[in-house]
């Protein structure tokens, strides 16, 4: 059942998620930054045209929980990571909170969302993360990354095409796939290395984390 949105409520839900998924990070340091971030996102969702946004609590239980599962599966260590189409910050901003050692670049086509991400990065005092206004596919940055991630990028095929262009060897690409709303298509250029199914908290449905790698 939904309680009123507060840091205590966020802490409770994060604790539940931590137990359910066996997440390898503590909930407590995540509570205040996530609370501030989700509260700001709720206030700006309409302006940013984030139509899927329902409430901070729903956002925590869907998008943030998926990002935390991804954070637990990423390779260990600090390395450059690109998030394609983070919109309001999923998964990249949440990855930075859970895995501060990562050096994250958020490539987002919508200028207003990029401005919001920049504001959040400054407000939360984060370093080693930046947002870049870029419509991938029309243009690609020169930078290359050992790890590329995304959620809600349109299709698995599109993700694989764009991730392929940005990956540096050995190269791993992780996609949070919502199989009931997004097509798989015919991904080409990367090899599928694994599919990790997981359940959203409180019976909110199933997701798959897809792992791709550069072909040998
Ligand atoms: C459905 S939203 C998903 C946002 C976020 N990843 C999430 O899961 O909540 C897709 C986002 O990807 C961005 N996007 C789509 N195609 C893109 C492209 N080719 N280059 C950069 N951003 C793109 C859109 O502007 C939008 O913000």
Structure description:
This protein has 216 residues and is α/β, with parallel strands linked by helices. It has a domain at 64-214: Rossmann fold. The chain has six helices and seven strands; from the N terminus they run αααβαβαββαβββ. It has a seven-stranded mixed β-sheet with strand order 3-2-1-4-5-7-6, with helices on both faces. β6 (190-199) and β7 (206-214) form a beta hairpin. It is globular, with a radius of gyration of 16 Å. The model has no long low-confidence stretch (mean pLDDT 94). It binds S-adenosylmethionine (SAM). S-adenosylmethionine binds next to β2.
Feature tags:
EC 2.1.1.-; Rossmann fold; rRNA (guanine-N7-)-methyltransferase activity; globular; single chain; SAM-dependent_MTases_sf; alpha/beta; binds S-adenosylmethionine; cytoplasm; 7-stranded mixed sheet; 6 helices; methyltransferase; 216 residues
The low-pLDDT segments are none
How many DSSP helices? 6
| Outline type | globular
CATH topology of one domain: Rossmann fold
Please identify the top-level CATH class of one domain: Alpha Beta
Q: Report on the biggest sheet.
A: 7 strands, mixed
Structural class: alpha/beta
**Total E-strand runs:** 7
**What proportion strand?**
15-25%
The CATH architecture of one domain comes to 3-Layer(aba) Sandwich
- Quote the distance from N terminus to C terminus: 48 Å
What is the CA-based Rg, rounded?
Answer: 16 Å
Query: Which sequence of SSEs, written as H and E, runs from N to C?
Result: HHHEHEHEEHEEE
User: Helical proportion?
Assistant: 25-40%
What would you give as the CATH superfamily of one domain? Vaccinia Virus protein VP39
